[in-house]
Design the sequence.
């Protein structure tokens, strides 16, 4: 494989992981949203590069979804919601920044080691891509666990999803990637466009999930 | 791609989809409730046709084989009876104003979309398509759980969305890994995701990749099965949504997710170097059984009580499929069928009970056999069945699970029996008050349709007394195919 081609693919996938790390220590919601948009933009470039490499034009559709839907539409919609709800305040981390970063590093190392170990003789590019993808998934899960705010949990989930899309495009010639990314986008759209956030607001005057936790199913 | 466009397997998918489109726009409660029933009945008829006609050749997307036909038949049967129950249940909800006509249209459309998604997951011959179908089923049920828009309903729906989506994402990662394992052997493109192709070549796949893939798939789809420790969404989702949805969730959607796990278990079993998937399933199943049976005792909400009972039974079924072998698989299939029928019958009864009593709190539902004898005794029979008392159907299947385990792993069997006994106690403690205590207020006559409830209970009783040889040989055949 051409060295440069490989390096560019590597750089893009690695940057996705790097942005995942940056999201972990953001304590302001709007900064987190901007970073997520960056996450999606890099993902779009990475997918487009893979489409070019694998000569798979349908992957450009996935790249377009990532660019327009996840990097533009969703962050803009969430920004509006955040501004309207007036929650430009600090995010309380459940776990402190230091331990979260350490955990994140541990998870990323785990993801890389696992993937490199189990795919010894497959193509080098695919294997490293899968390692980056798994690490991104794990960091997204960590972000969801470490945050209390409904908006940041949605962002965490979307970064998990970006990780799986990265894995899907890294697997050479995988069919149905477009269908899968469309299905995921529908899921996210339903959730983001109002259904929950507006209702949570309507009912509790907050999007802090601690307020939700007070309504345990079995009180009284 | 699809060989014959109008064959029965396509109709099983097209009918619910068309019905959903009509139900989304048509007004009027009576008309739409009838249409919902009619669509479910037509789907059931098509499935029966599928069952009688020779099996169609698999395509890249659709497949009918011995294994999934059991699931499809059960799915559309309970789907039909639940639509009958739903018609009388929803009438009451409209009357009391918990649902508005707009939400009713949404509810009916989503019901059919859910049926479509579950059938699609079952007939798909493609692991990518199956994933999309299960994701669609998750989305529709999240929306339906939140339909009452109370605090609790929103919390339940949010929890279900977060846990369900994470499960779905993990399952997708596993699916991608399966494709990665298959790609060097079967080549790039669609064949690497087609189930029948994967099965034919599974022995040559890279075992390490398959192992990791199975862990992701087990955790991902296992979340949807409600296996402990991934079950947290299940009790909330069951207790806060409309009761027909609780019946469909417990009776059907959990089975569909388990079916996905089973498919991948078969794939691993076909590769001699991969890990044995059985012990992992046995472990998760046993944990679910023990945990859920202990949790049965301190429930205060009647729907949550039976939600935990669903976790318990999914644990037993997963355990039995994990043990594997002809007898345990047979027992698991029988148990799954019996559980679906019994649990949906119980939810039918519970739905009407909570409507006449105006509450789901166990403490406020007392002495049902005096105030509402038909509902009360229906519930008693249902709970006796679900607790595994003879001579009802679940006793037979639980007995088979226990004996097949005793023959091979006596220690596991001890744990299994302990779980069953604990669950029996938990259910009977609550049943005593609900059915035979001094009657509580709420003596309104129920407008219920008892047909679905007693049809299910009759089937369960009949299966406990006599299993037709044709059914036994059919299940035995399927169990053999399950490895």
Sequence:
């Amino acid at each position: 494989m051409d060295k440069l081609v490989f390096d560019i693919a590597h750089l893009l996938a690695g940057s996705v992981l790097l942005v995942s790390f940056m999201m972990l220590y953001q304590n302001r919601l709007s900064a987190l949203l901007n970073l997520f948009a960056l996450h999606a933009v890099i993902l779009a470039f990475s997918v487009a590069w893979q489409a070019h490499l694998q000569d798979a034009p349908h992957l450009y559709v996935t790249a377009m979804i990532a660019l327009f839907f996840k990097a533009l539409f969703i962050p803009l919609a969430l920004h509006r919601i955040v501004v309207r709800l007036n929650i430009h305040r600090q995010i309380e981390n459940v776990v402190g920044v230091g331990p979260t970063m350490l955990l994140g590093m541990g998870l990323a190392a785990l993801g890389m080691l696992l993937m490199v170990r189990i795919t010894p003789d497959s193509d080098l590019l695919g294997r490293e891509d899968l390692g980056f993808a798994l690490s991104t998934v794990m960091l997204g899960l960590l972000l969801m666990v470490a945050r209390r705010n409904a908006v940041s949990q949605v962002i965490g989930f979307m970064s998990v999803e970006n990780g799986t899309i990265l894995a899907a495009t890294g697997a050479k010639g995988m069919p149905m990637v477009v269908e899968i990314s469309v299905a995921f986008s529908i899921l996210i759209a339903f959730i983001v466009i109002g259904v929950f956030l507006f209702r949570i607001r309507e009912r509790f005057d907050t999007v802090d999930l601690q307020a939700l936790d007070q309504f345990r199913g079995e009180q009284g | 791609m699809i060989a014959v466009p109008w064959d029965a397997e396509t109709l099983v998918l097209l009918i619910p989809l068309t019905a959903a489109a009509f139900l989304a726009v048509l007004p009027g409660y009576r008309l739409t409730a009838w249409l919902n029933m009619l669509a479910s009945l037509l789907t059931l008829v098509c499935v029966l046709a599928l069952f009688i006609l020779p099996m169609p050749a698999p395509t890249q997307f659709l497949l009918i084989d011995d294994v999934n036909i059991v699931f499809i038949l059960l799915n559309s049967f309970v789907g039909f009876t639940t639509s009958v129950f739903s018609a009388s249940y929803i009438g009451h909800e409209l009357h009391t104003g918990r649902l508005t006509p707009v939400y009713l249209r949404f509810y009916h459309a989503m019901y059919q979309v859910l049926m479509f998604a579950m059938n699609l997951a079952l007939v798909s011959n493609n692991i990518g398509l199956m994933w999309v179908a299960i994701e669609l089923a998750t989305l529709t049920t999240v929306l339906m759980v939140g339909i009452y828009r109370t605090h609790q309903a929103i919390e339940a729906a949010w929890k279900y969305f977060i846990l369900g989506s994470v499960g779905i994402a993990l399952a997708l990662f596993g699916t991608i890994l399966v494709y990665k394992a298959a790609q060097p052997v079967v080549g790039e493109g669609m064949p690497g995701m087609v189930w029948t192709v994967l099965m034919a070549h599974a022995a040559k796949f890279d075992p390490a990749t398959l192992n990791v893939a199975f862990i992701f798939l087990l955790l991902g789809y296992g979340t949807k099965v409600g296996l402990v420790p991934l079950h947290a969404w299940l009790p909330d989702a069951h207790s806060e949504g409309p009761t027909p949805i609780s019946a469909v969730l417990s009776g059907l959607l959990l089975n569909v997710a388990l079916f996905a796990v089973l498919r991948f278990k078969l794939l691993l079993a076909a590769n001699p170097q991969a890990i044995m998937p059985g012990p992992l399933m046995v472990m998760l199943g046993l944990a679910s059984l023990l945990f859920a049976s202990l949790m049965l005792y301190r429930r205060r909400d009647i729907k949550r009580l039976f939600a935990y009972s669903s976790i318990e039974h999914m644990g037993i079924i997963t355990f039995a499929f994990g043990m594997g072998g002809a007898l345990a698989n047979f027992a698991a299939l029988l148990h799954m069928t019996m559980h679906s029928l019994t649990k949906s019958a119980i939810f039918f009864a519970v739905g009407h009970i909570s409507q006449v009593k105006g509450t789901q709190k166990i403490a406020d539902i007392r002495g049902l056999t005096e105030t509402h004898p038909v509902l009360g005794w229906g519930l008693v029979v249902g709970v006796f069945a679900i607790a595994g008392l003879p001579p009802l159907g679940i006793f037979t299947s639980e007995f088979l699970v226990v004996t097949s385990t005793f023959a091979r792993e006596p220690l596991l069997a001890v744990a299994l029996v302990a779980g069953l006994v604990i669950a029996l106690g938990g259910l009977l403690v609550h049943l005593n008050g609900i059915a035979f205590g001094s009657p509580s207020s709420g003596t309104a006559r129920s407008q219920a349709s008892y047909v679905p409830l007693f049809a299910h209970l009759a089937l369960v009783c009949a299966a406990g007394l006599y299993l037709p040889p044709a059914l036994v040989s059919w299940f035995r055949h399927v169990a053999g195919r399950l490895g």
